[in-house]
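Hi V.,

Quick status before I head out on leave. The structure for the redesign project is tokenized and pasted below; the design run finished overnight.
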């Protein structure tokens, strides 16, 4: 969940499109923390988690102070040694 802040909007109080990628990163970090694998743990284990692709479909404009629910899908790729 993310509440749209004033600084994330344009003059019409519509969320600027560039912010959605940031919102997705917030959700990703939150998800990793919830499953007990936050960045602090990943760094200690020398694990990286690069974003290799991203897609964002804009369905509806979002306005100042709206509470935004983000849906994300994750793909686990196993690398063989």
């Amino acid at each position: 969940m993310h509440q749209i802040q004033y600084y994330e909007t344009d003059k019409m109080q519509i969320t600027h499109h560039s912010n959605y990628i940031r919102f997705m990163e917030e959700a990703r970090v939150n998800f990793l923390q919830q499953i007990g694998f936050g960045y602090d743990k990943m760094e200690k284990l020398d694990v990286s988690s690069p974003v290799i692709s991203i897609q964002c479909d804009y369905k509806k404009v979002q306005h100042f102070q709206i509470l935004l629910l983000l849906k994300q899908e994750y793909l686990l790729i196993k690398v063989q040694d």
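Above is the designed sequence. The first helix runs from residue 19 to 34.

G. will cover questions while I'm gone.

Best,
W.
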